[in-house]
Amino acid sequence: MADGRLRLTIYFTGGLIAILLLIHLSLFSFWFVEGGYYTNMEWENVSTRMGSILWDAFYIILLSAILIHSYSGIKGIAYEYITSDGGRKAIDLLLTAIWIIAFIYGVIPIVSG
Amino acid sequence: MNKVIFKLRRWDPDNKTYKTAEYEVPVRKGMTVLDGLIWIKENVDRTVSYRASCRMGLCGSCGMVINGKPMLACETQILHLESQTITVEPLYNYEPVRDLVADFHQFFEKQRTVKPYLIRDDLEEQINPTREYIQSPEEWNLYIQFAMCITCGLCYAACPTTSTDPRYLGPQALMNLYRFFADSRDQADHLRLEIADQADGVWGCHLATGCSEVCPKGVDPALAIQLLRKEILKRSLKLYRGKKISELAPPLPPKNKSPYRAFGEAPEFTVEEAQEKAGEFNILKDDRVR
Amino acid sequence: MGEKEGRKGILGWIFPITNLERLLYSLHRITGIGLTLYLFIHIYETSMRMYGYETWTATAEFLENPLFHFGLLLVVLAAIFHGVNGIRLILQELGLIAPRPTQPVYPYRKYHRDRKIWRTTIIMLILGVGVAVFALRDFLILLGVL
Description:
- The complex is a heterotrimer.
- Chain A has 5 helices and no strands.
- Chain A has helices at 2-26, 36-39, 43-51, 53-81, 85-112.
- By secondary structure, chain A is mostly helical.
- The radius of gyration of chain A is 17 Å and the shape is elongated.
- In chain B, helix 4 (137-147) runs antiparallel to helix 6 and helix 6 packs across helix 9 (221-236).
- Chain B is flat.
- Chain B has 2 domains: 2-102, Ubiquitin-like (UB roll) (Roll); 105-236, Fumarate Reductase Iron-sulfur Protein, Chain B, domain 2 (Orthogonal Bundle), CATH 1.10.1060.10.
- Chain B is an alpha+beta fold.
- Chain B starts with a strand and ends in a 12-residue tail after the last helix.
- A 5-stranded mixed sheet of chain B has the order 2-1-5-3-4. A two-stranded antiparallel sheet of chain B has the order 6-7.
- Chain C has one domain (3-96, 108-143): Fumarate reductase/succinate dehydrogenase, transmembrane subunit (3 helical TM bundles of succinate and fumarate reductases, Up-down Bundle).
- In chain C, 64% of the residues lie in helices and 0% in strands.
- In chain C, helix 1 packs across helix 3 (66-93) and helix 3 (66-93) packs antiparallel against helix 4 (115-143).
- Classes of the chains: A mainly alpha, B alpha+beta, C mainly alpha.
- At the B-C interface, helix 4, helix 8 and helix 9 of B face helix 1 and helix 3 of C.
């Protein structure tokens, strides 16, 4: 059932990402923000956003959702190619390690402001 | 008379390679790809090998990839393909034996894994059957679609997961599993859900739906797999309530006790008794007959 | 794996193209892998903030390139496709609104052409196209065309 639960997380996180990603993209769009892409890439604006608790929470949820979603997806593809039990355990460890490193790299800029 | 070119991608087992052979085949309306192959074998090249049997879409032997799509050769009309060149290859994702023949060994091995037979507690009845099990038309409808499978193997050729994962059970096996799971006569539903609930079981399916598209019998393996997933989900959330199991039919009423005589027994009347019973509808007394 | 066993291998991700949904599956997988690669690049890029103002501004200037803007547009379009198709898959995969099986009568009914699901998908597709138009306009503004 572990595989089933993983597949369910794809559905849940998928729906979540669809909504949160639209919000994230609208920050950089000329439609919604004056100066669009350039404004919200500036150091001060990013600092303000990362300082706010709400945006912190938003980005941590978005990052976690995307990482879980992509982890489950890539694992499914990897399992198609690696069919031995030992190989599958090894790929599990490898993918988990890579994804945890990605999470750390992603969370530090958010939290440190 | 029209002529089309048959390009056969023939597997050469000695050199372990595919060789393309071209044949010009005269075509008339109504001729199937299988007819074309038989014509080639009879008139041009006797060494062409292919599997075929019933030639009417019933046995599932003649599965081949025709113009890039898995189809039954006996059910595909040449003129319907609307192409001057008909490319015929052995089925994808099966080990080729020779020419257009594919080895179905793994296919049947996977089918055996899902235990495609009724499993019940009453072993004595299974070994020495005496009567039938009661099943209503509604219960029958729940699985009969998936029992129409002719094991032609086209679904495996169309499935993207079978093309990469040799352990994946495949659309036919999973659909067969659901066919027995949904059958009210079967009592092994938990066992079957456990077999399906693996990375190489139901979770290997990503709904590419090639299987349902190529199925010649409309069996829809994709639907079976999704319904199976629903049941597995219910079971994991502890919402699965089990199903009503068909019971053995009650014994027929004993002879001479029933006023209506048991089935299959001829009534034991003399002619006079029969005439008396027939009464006014006695044909022997009808003047119009004589 | 490979031609000897008859398995199509990685070509099987695309061939045989039997119907629309099979093609959508191939694109969904390819966009998924592409988006994952972009995710790692993006995380690395945003982590440049950790190294201070100069590094961040230098990164932003490095990315100020029509080629990278085009790449970003492709990523956004891929994400829109992946999302809309993903919603269709979520609706279909658990069989929650699947029809009851019936005796197959020719022409056969196929579950993947279920009307309810495709109606929802078409609505999501229209919304997705709307978002794509937004993204395209932004891209053209970034290029300086609009």
